[in-house]
Amino acid sequence: MDLRRFLLAAALAAATSTWAQDRFIVVSSTTSTENSGLFRHILPIVKQQTGVDVRVVAQGTGQALDMGKRGDCDVVFVHNKAAELKMVEAGWFVNRHDVMYNDFVIVGPKSDPAKVAGSKDVVAAFRKIRGAQAPFASRGDKSGTHAAELRLWKMAGIEPKGGWYREVGSGMGATLNTASGMNAYALADRGTWLSFKNRGELAIAVQGDQRLFNQYGVMLVNPAKHAHVKKDAGQAFIDWLVSPEGQAAIAAHKIGGEQLFFPNASR
Amino acid sequence: MGAEGVFADPRLWSIVGLSLAVSLSAVVLASLAGLPLGAALAVGRFPGREAVIVLLNALMGLPPVVVGLAIYLLLSRAGPLGELGLLFTPQAMVIAQTVLVLPIIAALARQAVEDAWREYEEQLRSLGVDGLRGALTVLWDIRFSLLTAVLAGLGRASAEVGAVMIVGGNIDGVTRVMTTTIALETSKGDLPLALGLGAVLICIVLALNAGAHLVKLAAERRYG
Amino acid sequence: MNGILPLRLEGVSYAAGGRTLIERTSLTLEAGASTIVLGANGAGKSVLMRLMHGLLAPSSGRVAWQTEGPRRRQAMVFQRPVMLRRSALANVLYALDAAGVPAAQQLRLAREALEEVGLAHVAGRPARVLSGGEQQRLALARAWALHPEVLFLDEPTASLDPGATREIEAVIKAFDVSGTKIVMSTHSLGQARRLGDEILFLHQGRLAERAPVEDFFKRPASAEAAAFIKGELPWI
């Protein structure tokens, strides 16, 4: 019985590895992009139009950038422009392009203890939440979303600490699960929020502030630092993302009729 | 995609297939190495033997996420085996699960062989059979009891998510298995779907266990 | 032929767990006569058998065969037979293989041994489903297949019913007749009389008496032997 199982497993392994002889690249991206379903939507089109098989490993922005630094992927596609540019300057990445943006929203319990619902001013809202000591769930995981959240607290002149501020140390979905369970406020990207199904008592409280604008960028791991990087296939993917076809595909991705990402690659 | 619709989705069945392929391969490899190792440890006598036994038993409790991290560091481009390009492939997942399951199978085999050795030792030594040959003879003789050890290993492998998540990367269509899918759907808040997948996973493991148990019963009836 | 007999025990003693189980003993076993090691439970029969067979190392003294490497030339049958989870034939083959018998001869020797003990008709059956008596006969076949010069038997019928006991004794008698030296321990006086030529009587780890079988039962020289004979069976 063992022998038969072994042969089945060997056959499966052989099958997956021969299929992997096609051009494939490893792209490290974020959980927010993955959870929004964007890759499910665009990767078949990428394969069709460029012949490149894109394998996405989704984690927090911090981990994704680290992975690029280590050379464990070929392309990085995240949303923390400041950090991306710093690493390009340090020589870890090359050929960075803006790709698209989406926005963050603040979600919170319908009971709205901090009285911020309907506001368009995120900094003022943050101050009110702090003032009311209303529970707030933070990702706390070095992600792009977490970095954006910390920037906003800084703008509000607040150092978030105390029993009301809960660092979950997880991805967006897990953080939203926790917020839903605790009836807490949280900062989320619109894409994850739209596809999130466990909302409980939560709803969008604050949106539309320019400061909630969230820029995504793509870049190639520097072949000079890591000779094994698949630079042709990787560059093909990057070129596609900023091309008219790629930008159109991104805009076409909708959840419940709502567009999630707004392409803004410069010509 | 609703919870009902997903069971008709061919993607689900390729995820199930990959889960089984990875875990079964790991269990086969871990058995090939771990069963003789456990048998040799049961029968051998050398200074420090008790310490090795304690260590092996303790390794049964290796946290999967720690194993995943260790294998990741080995296979990463920045690590010693980076050249192999194994990271984020099903092969890496098999490696990680083999490491995780090996101590379980070896430790349980050690216990089983040691218990049986008491019955066999005198007779085998009288026939001039000793050492490793004796250990392997006993190992084969108690093969149906060893199914329990192998099933324990299979249970551990198919249940864990930490190791395969880290070394596999949960890549859609390539390294996504049942447990990592459940983790993903949970994090997307799609709890009914996650529960449905969990039920499928449990049913599969249950079926494997039941099958093994029937084999054991049939064999006992036949061989005594 | 360079036989392994006579076997010499020189000042052999054995102690374990703080107790002396066999006191300093010297004796010689010659070819020919079947030797019965007799004594009450706890007298040390099993320990003495294992010392002679080589399963136990003496605490002092030495156990010396006439020629070196007696592994293949002697075999032992225990009170409870231990069979592998395979067919009866496979169990005998295993023993032959372990003894280094060339593969070409193994099958023939195994079948002959099974024939000898009357188990040829169950050669293909799993050994563990055989009855207690059949398994003990299989153990005898397994030992016999190696054509040993010396066959040790440690209380081989103690766990068997009278019918099976008779069958086993018949096989042992046949081996004795064909030239194998029999060394058997028992606590049954009747069995000792039926199968033995000489008696080694053990009492509390000491060789209390050694005599030809009829002399031992009619005129026991030691007090312990006399008491043992009297206490065991009133209808002697």
Give structural notes:
The complex is a heterotrimer of chains A (267), B (224) and C (236). Chain A contains 11 helices and 12 strands. Helices cover 43% and strands 25% of the residues of chain A. The relative contact order of chain A is 0.20. Chain A is α/β, with parallel strands linked by helices and 267 residues long. Chain A has 2 domains: 24-101 and 215-263, Periplasmic binding protein-like II (D-Maltodextrin-Binding Protein, domain 2), CATH 3.40.190.10; 102-212, D-Maltodextrin-Binding Protein, domain 2 (3-Layer(aba) Sandwich), CATH 3.40.190.10. Chain A has helices spanning 2-19, 31-35, 38-50, 61-70, 81-89, 122-132, 144-155, 172-182, 190-195, 231-242, 244-252; strands at 24-30, 53-59, 75-78, 93-109, 136-138, 165-167, 185-189, 202-206, 213-221, 254-255, 258-259, 262-263. In chain A, a hairpin with a 2-residue loop joins strand 10 (254-255) and strand 11 (258-259). In chain A, the strands form 2 sheets. In chain A, strands 1, 2, 3, 4, 5, 6, 7, 8, 9 and 12 form a 10-stranded mixed sheet that branches. By secondary structure, chain B is an all-alpha fold. Chain B has 9 helices and no strands. Chain B has helices at residues 10-43, 49-59, 64-75, 90-126, 131-141, 143-159, 162-168, 178-187, 191-223. With 236 residues, chain C is of the alpha/beta class. The termini of chain C are far apart. Chain C has helices spanning 45-53, 88-98, 103-117, 132-144, 162-177, 189-195, 213-218, 223-232; strands at residues 7-16, 19-29, 35-38, 60-64, 74-77, 150-154, 181-186, 198-203, 206-212. In chain C, a hairpin with a 2-residue loop joins strand 1 and strand 2 (19-29). Chain C has a single domain (7-232), classed as Rossmann fold (3-Layer(aba) Sandwich), CATH 3.40.50.300. The longest helix of chain C is centred in the C-terminal third of the chain and has 16 residues, at 162-177. The chains are: A alpha/beta (267), B mainly alpha (224), C alpha/beta (236). Chains in contact: A-B, B-C. Chain A binds chain B through residues 1-2, 5-6, 8-10, 12-13, 16-17, 20, 26, 31, 35, 39-40, 43, 55-58, 70-72, 170-174, 176-177, 180, 192, 195-199, 226, 228, and chain B through 17-18, 21, 24-25, 28, 31, 76-78, 82, 85, 87-91, 94, 169-172, 174, 184, 186-191, 215.
